[in-house]
Amino acid sequence: MAERRYPEPVVTPETGEFWQAAKEDRLLIKRCRACGKFHWYPRAVCPHCMSGETEWVEAEGDGTIYSFSVMERAEVPYAIAYVELAEGVRMMTNIVDCPFAGIRIGQAVRVRFAPTEGGGKLPVFVPA
Amino acid sequence: MTIKGKAFIAGAYEHPTRKAPDKSVMQLHAEAARGALEDAGLTKDDVDGYFCAGDAPGMGVFSVADYMNLRLRHVDSTDTGGSSYLAHVAHAAEAIAAGKCNVALITLAGRPRSEGMATGTAARQGNPGQPEVGFEYPYGLTVANGYAMAAMRHMHEFGTTSEQLAWVKVAASHHAQHNPNAMLRDVVTVEQVLASPMVTTPLHRLDCCVISDGGGALVVTREEIARGLKRPLVRVIGAGESPKFSGGGFMDLTYTGARFSGAAAFAEAGVKPADIQYASIYDSFTITVVIQIEDLGFCEKGRGGAFVADGNLISGVGRLPFNTDGGGLCNNHPANRGGMTKVIEAVRQLRGEAHPKVQVPGCTLALAHGTGGLIATRHGSATLIMERI
Fold first, then answer.
1. In chain B, which stretches have pLDDT less than 50?
2. Which of residues 307-346 of B touch A (CB under 8 A)?
3. What's the pTM?
4. Domains in chain B, ordered, with CATH?
5. ipTM surpassing 0.95, yes or no?
6. d(Cα B246, Cα B131) in Å, to the nearest integer?
7. Strand, helix or coil at B360?
8. CATH numbers and ranges of domains, chain A
9. What's the rounded mean pLDDT across residues A73-101?
10. Do B140 and A91 make contact, defined as CB atoms within 8 angstroms?
11. Nearest Cβ partner of A7 from B138, B144, B197?
12. How confident is the model at residue B40, as a pLDDT?
């Protein structure tokens, strides 16, 4: 079967550090110094309190599947999901390297980094 | 200020085409506009307010209004995806109530079918300036798997089944058999829905709406003008809007903005869900209908699957006749935006002009609801309540 290919993510001035860390197999998330809350996707301005004092924190990399769907109408079928990280935020991702029929909501998963077409890396998840 | 009773839907027209390789999008907008104006008994020179959304080529209203050579004093190009046109009716009512225009024209048109667009199953990057793009597009987010994730979560939390979802399509097909313009006119069974190819779990092909070319238009006007026209009087009595977003990473996929837009519309209209005789409910996918029916208050949260089962949405059979034109699931989803046709069929029902096989007897109170965008990420939500007087 053909390999799923990941497009190079769009990098913006707000997300350069995130994608650089991903190349080093580290998952960064943002936390607000003012209100203390995590958020996703990463922003310079906190979506909870509008503070500009947000900081990068390395996530533990563990999570559970909040929801998922196996896209069968694609050249290479894939499993899209929302994973709830240990830090509480829900991020969109893919579940990889497992039989799709076994994926379940609530399942424990762990981050891994998949190569993108342009030489970067993308956080995906595998069963823990 | 309330819009209750301030505006009337005097003209409604659904373009009959479902495949238009020989027409331009602009032509479809203008043909739909002409149809709605003729339906109302008005002309383009009566129009002083114009409304369109992102399906209209060009910047905001400019190109379409210029093509039709309109002379305007009020415009609005609010774009909340497929729910835009319900919002436009509400905004037109506000503008009319405030004296900003007298005759508002709303149009929609598009040709995704002729253009071979993989509407639901192709991942699209969008504008790289959208901050979420890097965190969604690479994972293959499409329209279909976004709604499918909402369906999976609904099943997980409430025990909703694929059979229950299939009943939404079955009901739509019972209605579409009477619509000569519908794309899919064959009545289908629950078993046929479940046997259709899986698109993205748990949504089968027949859980998904059609991809069609076409368009539609509405004319909204003030009471004095509406009473001078030779059409049944359909009055807007309640409206609500509530877009819902991803919550900074704390989203809940089990409900939509309909929870708030519906409540606002019912409060303004002064009626309850149990009073509604006919409902147009946005049906991009079967799951969309189930979640919205709960959020609008037709049943408790989590009970939508049981509510739609066993023909409860079939006109003449069930408690809540819905989408009697066949809806997006069977009839038409022009420009991949179903809000326009939702209003049009509600107007037909209130006028008593739906097909006799699906007409709700003595229909005087109807609801139309639209969802636009993706319920899995960011979506618009707009509800309208209308009455026949």
1. none
2. none
3. 0.97
4. 7-115+213-237 (3.40.47.10), 143-212+240-388 (3.40.47.10)
5. yes
6. 12
7. coil
8. 16-127 (2.40.50.840)
9. 97
10. no
11. B138
12. 98
